[in-house]
Amino acid sequence: MSANNALHIAVLAGDGIGPEVMAPALDILRKVEVNSDLRFRFTEAPAGANHYRETGKSMPESTVRLCEEADAILLGACGLPSVRYPDNTEIAPQVELRFLFDLYAGVRPARLIPGVPSPIVGADQCGIDMVVIRESTEGLFASMGKGVVTDEDARETLVITRKTSERLFEFSFKLAERRKARGRPGQLTCVDKANVFRAFAFFRKMFDEAARHHPTVKADHLYVDACSLMLVKRPWDFDVMVMENMFGDILSDLAAGLIGGMGMAPSADIGDRYAVFQPCHGTAPDIMGQGKANPTAMILSVAMMLDWLADKHGLENAAEAGERIEQAVDKAYADGIKPFELGGKNGTADIAKAVMAAV
Length: 359
Ligand code: ATP
Description:
The chain is built from twelve helices and twelve strands. By secondary structure, it is of the alpha/beta class.
């Protein structure tokens, strides 16, 4: 934090709809400044496919240094299907940041906002309020860029380490405890495939060890296939789930689908010191430049950032501001906002305006 107590936020708007959803999210933070004694200093920096096209790098060294110095990092979305590395993979500084800053806990909340239709029958009555925690630095993604491919076969290696798993589980149990203190069930489910792979049996063993230190949290396990079934049948039974990187990549998108779509799902990639906040969605090239992007996920990611800053620096006013933003989003939907992705007629500007009015 700088001398005048302004929170320094690195802003990486990225590609596609990234800048379109970032702009209203920053407007909301500026409104928070007016209504509270919180102060922000925003520094914008390049990252992503457009930057790669211009310079041959996914992000400059200056962006990495800025992220190091800032109190928190906000990211729109990065990567475009039409811009690729020579090996045909997409430009993904968001994934690089996870490795650079050791952001092992990918936090993906999925809360069904009252009034938003879910594809799941009964969800409007029972509600959905869960968090997928995706380990974000190892698992199958440890092999990123290192896979061995010949004309005959291809190999990618999944990595689970004690060092990362222990921190991941500690983080997950603490989150479940924090949610319990706020009225949620306080339940943590380890999602794995321990019946088939030794790496996941190891993962589960370490989860059970961690569970012994957190007796107030109800700890249980599910195999990832059974978990996928239960998520669709009874999503309201889940509170917090923790899993390997690739499983989390897939199940967090599934969870986003349960609460209306990608535009509704916020996320955070958190480490011991740094954290990046960004919507779960990608750059949505199919709708970019049309004013159709739903900024809700980006706005809710900003609320998560405030909650994290509150916890890190003991700033009660930041926690209150985060809650106020969530409530403003709820009010916008209760008042009838319906984004294009949910079959409605409200684009970025309408949604931003409705949330701004309610903050
Ligand atoms: P990535 O691989 O980078 O995560 P993706 O290819 O999985 O990205 P997205 O860019 O997230 O996909 O888009 C998936 C679908 O969801 C697209 O049809 C897109 O238009 C839609 N979508 C994503 N984000 C939003 C949003 N904020 N508002 C409306 N629709 C969105």
